[in-house]
Specification:
alpha/beta; Metallo-beta-lactamase, Chain A; Rossmann fold; seven-stranded mixed beta sheet; 28% strand; elongated
Length: 407
């Protein structure tokens, strides 16, 4: 089946080239994305030739070449700007360089040149850019700014000042395949912000402390307040560009939605599930909105969805069990990613159940003792839910609610 592509002029002489990827089930071979993803590249046409910004993932190379040729002869591409070298955006680069006899100049962060050699085995004509480097071509001006670790070390953005457009690579991107191109062409914008949060936390969350720093450098130091934000994934932002900017700042700081509590649990034989349901009922009775993710024998929540909800929750309830004298393996991996990507100062209640001997509670304590979750409470008991263990769980929820209301 031919991939669905979109070619559209989005500003004077600037074109979007988008492909909808419904084939990739696990982004970066890790994050479950049943919603799919787009790859957005851009082409600027001028009287002196064209400037190409980024590309698509390698499996879509032939479609990318065909899309470009609808806009310009390939030899008219005089310059290629790489916002970062991750292969979902640079996978088409070798083919484009091979097909362009004029051999365009590649622009990028100084480190990008090494990545082109390392990932593609190529040494094209390369122009390294510094913060604020300006490049005039064909009556248009391009200004480049570094945004390192969002999410590769050589990430950068491009500003087109004549139209006040900002091309941002992965920054401000999102999962999903929107029904429209721009944020004012979708029915449920909040849903697409959720997709952007899921993308941000799973892909950039490890560098969350860099999010606010880089964005504020762009907005405060360099004075960028773009009228349109053009990322490499998902929606383009023209109606509410500041909304996605503020959302990124909030996600990077772990700002909570009032009343939201993420509840996530593993349960091999539903003993943990019964215990966690007590906490869910108690939370609802006290006016909170539990968002529940399950890892059980007939359903497994996506890791990226779990992390996304954890990021903007007021508090966390985590349920698990002892497995082979250790913590349940999926829970252990989840905790590793939680500490890596969404470790914010939020109350956490852990519920651990064991059969013949307890181990999960001790392992939970070890895994969480150096994390910033505060306070951490662990309730552990054997086997069936009893009146005593139910009372412990309810008391844990009441203490968590008291913590939140005392803030």
């Amino acid at each position: 089946m031919e991939p669905q592509t979109i070619i559209q002029e989005i500003a004077p002489s600037l074109y979007l080239l988008r492909v909808n990827d419904r084939q990739t089930r696990y982004f970066e071979a890790l994050w479950e994305i049943p919603e799919g993803i787009t790859y957005n590249a851009y082409l600027l046409k001028t009287p002196e030739g064209a400037v190409l910004f980024d590309g698509w993932k390698q499996p879509f190379t032939d479609a990318f070449v065909a899309a470009l040729e609808q806009l310009t002869p390939l030899d008219e591409i005089k310059h290629i700007v790489i916002h970062h070298m991750e292969p979902d955006h640079s996978g088409t680069l070798p083919k484009i360089l091979a097909l362009t006899e004029a051999k365009p100049t590649v622009w990028g962060h100084p480190f990008t040149q090494r990545l082109i050699a390392g990932l593609c085995g190529l040494q094209p004509s390369f122009q390294a850019v510094k913060n604020g480097t300006r490049f005039a071509f064909g009556g248009r001006e391009l200004v480049f700014y570094h945004a390192p670790w969002l999410h590769w070390p050589e990430t950068m953005v491009t500003h087109l000042p004549q139209d006040n457009l900002l091309l941002t690579g992965d920054i401000f991107g999102g999962y999903g395949i929107p029904e429209g191109v721009f944020d004012d062409e979708v029915a449920l914008l909040d849903q697409w912000l959720d997709s952007a949060r899921k993308y941000t936390i799973s892909v950039i969350g490890h560098y969350k402390d860099k999010i606010g720093k880089n964005i504020r450098t762009l907005t405060d130091k360099y004075g960028l307040q773009p009228s349109m934000i053009l990322p490499a994934h998902g929606l383009l932002w023209r109606q509410a560009p500041q909304r996605v900017v503020q959302a990124y700042l909030d996600w990077g700081e772990g700002k909570s939605q009032p009343g939201k509590v993420t509840v996530v649990y593993s349960s091999m034989y539903r003993y943990v599930e019964r215990a966690v349901q007590v906490a869910v009922d108690e939370l609802r009775a006290r006016g909170f909105r539990p968002v529940v993710h399950r890892m059980v024998d007939d359903k497994r929540a996506g890791l990226a969805d779990i992390l996304s909800d954890l990021a903007d929750s007021e508090a966390i309830v985590l349920g698990t069990e002892t497995y082979e004298s250790d913590i349940f393996p999926l829970t252990e991996f989840l905790l590793h990613e939680m500490v890596n990507k969404v470790a914010f100062a939020k109350p956490l209640l852990a519920i651990a159940v064991f059969g013949w001997a307890g181990a999960a509670g001790k392992k939970l304590h070890t895994l969480l003792e150096n994390a910033p979750y505060e306070p951490v409470r662990i309730v552990e008991f054997k086997g069936l839910l009893t009146e005593a263990s139910e009372a412990q769980i309810r008391e844990g929820v009441r203490a968590m609610v008291a913590d939140l209301r005392a803030e």
